[in-house]
Design a protein that fits this description.
The chain is α/β, with parallel strands linked by helices. It contains 14 helices and 8 strands. Strands 3-2-4-1-5-6-7-8 form an 8-stranded mixed β-sheet, with helices on both faces. Bound molecules: guanosine-5'-triphosphate and magnesium ion.
């Protein structure tokens, strides 16, 4: 081998080595960026999540006040229309505007800014009436297993809510068991299994088509035997008008009671905020069949009609305990009146 060949070989080796080092550095960098991009972003503020509803209230309010500029009956009509469009409901809207008229008269209000302030306070008071953050929030009692039954019409967000809640309780160090009692819809069991896996919860399931009460029996038995903290039961979506399906719910309740006589400890109806006033009819019918302890109002992020919260409070005696503000695991919030009113008016 002459000197030239040796030099060539050394140069080639140096080149190869440099290339390898460069590749390694690039790889390390790209894995770093990957790591950063998968880090969960801070949960968005409620204000951002409720931006559409805020536009329906504050946005419209500002528009109306600008347009009218005077405190008169036309202003009252526009405000009532605004409430109706935000799905507050006819009865609640009329009551709110009547109250506003009265306050304008008593306090001799003559600026639109003051009208705006009073309207906000009337809505806040209505929502705060008989409201107890302690009782109206979704809280686990000192009971083991704490059993929660989820009901609702098709596609409202029952399974998603269960997935989100499972994560919340697992994060609190609780053992959580999900029961796949939606044995009707194809892929429902698999969907719940994915949520269980994501949250680190366990699941009890049978094959599609089995009797929902039989899965519930197995699940609750297993929870008792394994000393599980929280049991979340997913049921099939059902139209509130179908009597046999509503009876099936009562059967599920009776099955739970056979094993845990004071269960279920919460019976939650999930309603879709985008369905408007029909949500109130659903709540009334489900309440007759199962005696609801609370509501979850889902999909509040996707609608300008968040005023349904006000309609529900005005017409029903069932607290909204949780709100769904997105499809992700962290998109479930406790419903807090002041936070909600601030988010849509400030
Ligand atoms: N934007 C938004 N989407 C939601 C929310 N909750 C649920 N969804 C979506 O709504 C769709 C239906 O959700 P599911 O959880 O499957 O509803 P379900 O009530 O279990 O449906 P069935 O079992 O078929 O009756 C899914 O695409 C969810 O991602 C929410 O709070 N916000
Ligand atoms: Mg489901």
């Amino acid at each position: 081998m002459d000197t030239n060949t040796i030099i060539y070989i050394i140069a080639a080796l140096i080149l190869i080595l440099t290339a390898i080092i460069a590749i390694l550095i690039l790889k390390k960098r790209s894995s770093k960026t990957k790591q950063i991009s998968t880090v969960k972003s801070e949960p968005e503020s409620l204000k951002l999540k409720l931006a559409k509803t805020k536009n329906g209230f504050l946005g419209k309010l500002v528009e109306i006040v600008k347009l009218r500029g005077r405190v008169d009956e036309d202003l009252m009509d526009d405000l009532e229309e605004m409430l109706l469009q935000a799905d507050v409901g006819v009865k609640a809207s009329i009551d709110i505007i009547d109250k506003l008229r009265e306050e304008i008269r008593i306090n001799q209000i003559n600026t639109t800014e003051e009208v705006q302030k009073h309207l906000e306070e009337i809505i806040r008071d209505l929502l705060l009436k008989d409201y107890s953050a302690d009782e109206d929030h979704f809280k686990l009692a000192d009971i083991k297993p704490f059993i929660v039954l989820f009901t609702g019409v098709n596609g409202v967000g029952k399974t998603t809510t269960i997935g989100k809640l499972a994560k919340r309780f697992v994060d609190q160090g609780k053992s959580v068991l999900l029961i796949a009692a939606d044995t009707f819809r194809a892929a429902a069991i698999e969907q719940l299994a994915i949520w269980a896996d994501r949250a680190g919860a366990s699941i009890v399931k049978q094959q599609q088509g089995s009797d929902p009460s039989s899965v519930v029996y197995d699940g609750v038995m297993s929870a008792v035997n394994k000393n599980i903290d929280v049991v979340l039961i997913d049921t099939a979506g059902r139209q509130h008008t179908k009597v046999n399906l509503m009876n099936e719910l009562s059967k599920i309740e009776r099955t739970i009671k056979k094993i845990v006589p004071d269960g279920p400890h919460e019976t939650i109806l999930v309603v879709d905020a985008t369905t408007g006033q029909n949500a109130i009819i659903q709540a009334k019918t489900f309440d007759e069949a199962t005696n609801l302890s609370g509501l979850v109002l889902s999909k509040l992020d996707g609608t300008a009609k968040g005023g349904i919260v006000i309609g529900i409070k005005h017409q029903l005696n069932i607290p909204v305990k949780l709100i769904g503000v997105g499809e992700a695991q962290e998109d479930l919030r406790d419903f807090d009146v002041n936070e909600f009113v601030d988010a849509i008016f400030e």
